[in-house]
Amino acid sequence: MHLENVSMGGNGSYAGYVRAMQVDDGLDYDLIIFCHGQNDGEHSNCFWYEAMIRACKRKYPNATMISVLESAQKAFTETITNTQAMTDHYGIYQADTITPFMSGDYGEYMSLTYDGCHPNPAGQAIYAEVVEGVIDGIVKDPKPLPAKDIAPISEGLEALEKAEWISWEEFDYNADTFTYTYTAKEDMSGDMGIDYYHLKIDKNRTVVCAAGKELKVFEFDWSMYPKQRHITHVGGFEVKKGETITVTLTNAEAAEDFGGICISNPKD
Question: CB 143: neighbour CB atoms within 10 A?
Fold first, then answer.
């Protein structure tokens, strides 16, 4: 058995999509387990979750897939029901951890978590039990794999089927302003995300610009949480040959950890 965990704590399904696109180890996986959604927002429409699933289906068309319905939602919220509808659409098995966490059969909900959200060892044991039960059911009563070419629910997903990465090493760095600058070698366009860290401080601020125009400003207080890597969606962009993409980080520590950018649907 070979296990590979490409998940990232604290991240949304966009990071799951990017990480799925990045896997390139030459292995043909038999089972893929998704555990996403909690960080996608209260009314997530599962766009990036679906992008993540489709990325995995393209790479591993013969893999069985399980979607974990996360206990931290505490109920069958809009995010969960959307996830169920989307995974039903792709013939993906569901592992419901909400029901056992809320049932009281294993103790009060808070006794199964560290902080009201993240499962502690007792809570993680429930996750293992639920997922094991789903796998046992699959082994005892295997169903035919779903069709390989299933039309997407969300519009625009076909444009995300290609992606490329520009590492921090390809940027010029200004240590005085904590700014990374990439100069386009040709016309570029697509959908951008950045790979950076949230620092354990109250004033994280990251600014992303393309062709001299501000694309996104990320400002947030992360002082209550440990330093953590994030892959975050920025949005659509376009630059001409010779124009620049810049990423200005909070401070020298944040700049040290900058990983680069992901571009989906890159211009050929």
Answer: 10
pTM above 0.85, yes or no: yes
Q: Report residue 224 as tokens.
A: 């209550």
Q: How far, in Å, CA of 266 to CA of 258, rounded?
A: 21
The string of pLDDT tens digits covering residues 157-179 is: 988 999 999 999 999 999 999 99
For CA atoms 112, 116, 121, 125, the dihedral sign is positive
- As a whole number of angstroms, the distance between CA 206 and CA 216 comes to 8
Give the 3-state DSSP-derived string for the chain, with helices as H, strands as E and coil as C. Answer: CCCCCCCCCCCCHHHHHHHHHHCCCCCCCCEEEECCCHHHCCCCCCHHHHHHHHHHHHHCCCCEEEEEECHHHCCCCHHHHHHHHHHHHCCCEEEECHHHHHHCECECHHHHECCCCCECHHHHHHHHHHHHHHHHHHHHCCCCCCCCCCCCCCCCHHHHCCEEEEEHHHCEEECCCCEEEEECCCCEEEEEEEEEEECCCCCEEEEEEECCEEEEEEEECCCCCCCEEEEEEEEEEEECCCCEEEEECCCHHHHHCCCEEEEECCCC
Beta carbons within 8 Å of 210's beta carbon, 6+ residues apart: 192, 237, 238, 239, 243, 244, 245, 246
- The per-residue pLDDT for range 187-215, each reduced to its tens digit, is 999 999 999 999 999 999 999 999 999 99
